[in-house]
Amino acid sequence: MAKKERFNRLSPNEQLEEILETKTFSIDCKNLLLSMLYKLESSYNDYETVKRIVDPEKQIIEDILNIIKECNDIKLINPTSLKMSQFKKKNIMFKVDRQKKKIETEPNEKAMLNAIYSLPDEKKVYLDEEHSAIRNSLPYILENGRNINKAEIIRDFDAWSWNTSFSDIPSIECNLIYQNLQILLGKEFLEEWMRLDNTKNSLEMLNNKLNELLNKNEVEEFLNLIFKLSIIIYCRNNAKEKSRLSEELSWNTKELKKLSNTVNLVKEVSKIKATALQNIDRIDRILSDQKEFERELKKANENEVDTRILTPDDLETRLKRQKKKLENQIKEANNMLLVKQYMELKSKIVKDNKLLKAINESEKKEDYILELQKYFISGMKSKIDAEENRKEIIDLVYIIRYYNFIPCLNEKYIKDVEELKDSIDKMEEMLVDKLIKLKIVNRFSNNEEFDKKIIKKIFNMRMINLENINVEFVNDYEMIFYDVETIEEKFDMDSEEAKILKHNKKLKLFI
């Protein structure tokens, strides 16, 4: 039997043990890796049920085993060591050396899985110079968000419950932005886009996909908020990038000032063209006059900084290249005087500056995050409105419930952010209307508004499988939500409608 075929027939635990036999990792490290894999397998079913947007278990395990196979060294940091103090001071759980394929990590499964996912030197999200303002910051946000998303399976799930910890998430903002995009765009689309060489289509694909859910202005605002947040977050700890963007903002501001003064612009363009035409005329004379050409060749060799002697062919190539560059300058200068090109250039600089100003807007971060969520919710309402399939609607119930428990600002979950409550309530109401209309859930009374209040409570419950819910009205003032038989939540009621409900009888919520 071929070695690879035999390896694939082993259980994941056996595959890991076989890989570890070839490694010089410490016994504690090997045991931690085995424990990590066990927790992952134990948590997967709950993770898949709650989140919905996940990779197949087999793929997750295969990816992790392949990374471990390629890893050269893993060192566990002693909790009482100086190194651990340095980690705590920098607020990091692990450190990776991608070139040497080495990991240093806190001795726990969560930190280990985060480190493993961060080790591969994956193809970076690429943006060309047209998107200079975000070509470093947006990839940083997306790549960190992707790794945080992957590590969630054992960070927030423990085979018995689902609990989201703020302290275990390396970046609350990166995670939130990534989850927004993954839910709206779809997992497959987002991952495919992140792998693309975006030299030509750049952000056009994102625009087109989001246009299926939001109008043109909403798409522009939604993406601009993500771009601004990425600049704020990335520049927070990257002085070099902040300096680069500051210089770009300064240069753009000067260019905008030039463009705004049309009289001076015409004078400057005329000067550029006149100088370029004079130099082109000089080059043409040299190329057409043998004596002039020989004098230029001698002069060039006298001024050459290195010892290499220019040949006539070298000089001819150089002069033709200079002429081409001058011709391009004239073309660009002419374009600046054409209304369409002038307006496009001015518009681009204005648009870029709006993003670049984010380097000085860190105090607006929370406002931008809240605004971003409102556009996200608008997109989700479009998804709900368009959906009629029972399974997909139930998936949306889980996805919105999951969204409610994503960590957001000031150690609050999305559902607890006061500024978002009205928007979330309207989104949930839309989905509950669909659940009732398509008879996916039971009715409890003849009062639809009362029934909606009951059904909407599921969006704020951490029960793993919502489809197991039974509801019991104990008396006129109290109801209980069961996970089959186990009591999960108790709620007080203040509706007169409750007085005509059947008491002490469990009713299944989902039909």
> How much helix, percentage-wise, in residues?
55-70%
- Approximate strand percentage: 5-15%
Can you summarize the main beta sheet? Answer: 4 strands, antiparallel
Number of helical segments with 4 or more residues: 21
Silhouette: globular
Backbone structural class: alpha+beta
Overall strand count: 7
Q: Whole-number radius of gyration?
A: 31 Å
Q: SSE order, as H and E? A: HHHHEHEEHHHHHHHHHHHHHHHHEEEE
Strand order, largest beta sheet: 6-5-4-7
Calculate the mean pLDDT score and round it. 89
Spatial gap, N to C terminus: 50 Å
Spans of 5+ residues with little confidence (pLDDT < 50)?
A: none
What does this structure look like?
The protein is an alpha+beta fold. Among the domains are: 1-121, no CATH class; 257-353; 387-508, no CATH class. Helices cover 61% and strands 6% of the residues. Strands 6-5-4-7 form a 4-stranded antiparallel β-sheet, with no helix packed on it. The protein has a 3-stranded mixed β-sheet with strand order 1-3-2, covered by helices on one side. Helix 13 (239-260) runs antiparallel to helix 17, helix 14 (262-288) packs antiparallel against helix 16 (312-337) and helix 18 (365-386) packs parallel to helix 20. It is globular.
Which terms summarize this structure?
alpha+beta, single chain, 7 strands, 4-stranded antiparallel β-sheet, about 500 residues, 3-stranded mixed β-sheet, 21 helices
